Amino acid sequence: MNRKSTILWRVAVLGLIASLVPLGIYALERYNQVDTDRMLDVSVSIRTMSHVTVDKFGDSVWDTGNGSGFLVSRQNCEVWTNHHVIADAALIEVFPKGWNRAGGISATVVNATPRTDVAILELEHCDGLPQARLGNSDLVQPGDETFAVGNPLGRNPDSISRGIISHTQRYRDAPLPYLQTDAAINPGNSGGALFDREGNVIGMNTAIETTRFGSNTGVGFAVPINLVREVVAELREGPPSWGDAGFNDVVASLSPDEAEVFHVPDGLAALIITATPEDGPSAGKLEAHDVIYRINGNGIEDKKQATRMIGQHKVGEALALDVIRAGEQRRVEIVLGEGWSANAVPTADQYDGYLGMTLEMWTDKDDDRNRFKQPVITRVHSMGPAHRAHIASTQKTVFVNGGFAIPYLLDVKTVTGVAYQGEYHPVETVAEVESFAARAFADGEPLLLEIELWARTDPRDYRADLIHESTAFFKLTPERALAGNDDSRFKAKPLNRVSRAPFAMLRTAVRTRSPHA
Prior knowledge:
Layout: H1 3-32, H2 36-42, E1 43-50, E2 53-54, E3 60-61, E4 64-73, E5 78-81, H3 83-86, E6 89-96, E7 105-113, E8 118-123, E9 133-134, E10 145-150, E11 159-171, E12 177-181, E13 193-195, E14 200-210, E15 216-224, H4 225-237, E16 243-244, E17 251-254, H5 256-260, E18 270-273, E19 291-295, E20 298-299, H6 303-311, E21 318-325, E22 328-335, E23 337-338, E24 357-360, E25 376-380, H7 385-388, E26 395-401, E27 404-420, E28 423-426, H8 430-443, E29 447-456, E30 466-476
Parallel strand pairs: 9-14
Antiparallel strand pairs: 1-4, 1-6, 2-3, 4-5, 5-8, 6-7, 7-8, 10-11, 10-13, 11-12, 12-15, 13-14, 14-15, 16-23, 17-18, 18-19, 19-20, 19-21, 21-22, 24-25, 26-27, 27-28, 27-29, 29-30
């Protein structure tokens, strides 16, 4: 090969390499690029309101909550989330990415279970929303990159954080294995999707690890999506159900060293019954200080593991328990009962008029209430127009002064005006407000109420002045109270709380005191 040919050959090779470099860079960029827009598009924020209750001061109060979810079916407008996000909800609203209206899309609960903390919601509509791609959580490995999407702290919709999977079989208090991740998860993320880097949902964000002071440690937990699929399939068939032996509340764990004192064989750990069960499947079968060391021939590790073993069996199935009673080994058979029971869902309040709230005039009072000349909101009724418009009632509290408890007004909320059919009208009496409400009801039109908030400069001091703090407008549509139970949130049986559950499901989001996300 002559010198000229060698030079040409080298130039050609260098040219080929030069042409491949941009392609390599492009391929690398494409590999590193993550479609976070799609993750956000399929994710939703959830806002809930509980039923109105009357507290010890006679004030009408309710809780608000925030959570997250993701759309899994455009055909059925189906969203999956956590049970504890909607467990106490009277009203559920869903907010897609970029939603710019004050109210969200109304949602109802198809079914839900506290045991695995999964709920199915159906939206009133889901026009234009894409559905999520569900991945395979069995393929997830420690070190895989993850992305958590949700509404942390109830004030940050459409938020996304990145981390890795740090464990794939982490058991906590629940009878299921969690995916563990260090992607930032906070209260309000509950029910949101945990994505892999390809944008597939691999888990449902559910809980966080906290210190004993309640601080977030940076470790989060998600229900594996394959398990969520299984649970959803069961929920579509009917109410949640699992077997319960009836001794979960009267049992304690014994380590192998402790169990050895009771002559438990084979170095096994055990459970000890702390009080004789008086009802349920174990009544008449187990006694106080019975030591259980095998269930259906399988050794026991601790109470949590035993709860998981029992919960895998269905109602009506028999469990064989190997027990030591008074130093003697024996076998006890227990037929499992139902581990799930639901309380009745609270009914909507009955009320007079069209606004679902009670208004009073205080001009004839002798104390500082006399200063308020406009109608005062003293009660808001559950599921009425005012409740759904997030209007709150006047609140009272108690100041403790030595041995004396002094009740006093914490704040006052007054209706000072009404906007109707494009025109603002000041109001001075209850009759004026009710007159506008009656007209709006007859016309099927909304009202805009102007409400002033008056509050103490120091809420802890009953002598502090009540000053005007803010003025806000609330849109509502007047309507009559519906008779009976108007709670239409659930498509299946009413679900509200759980008894004899293997672990406590506490409230979520910005009002949470629990380790839930």
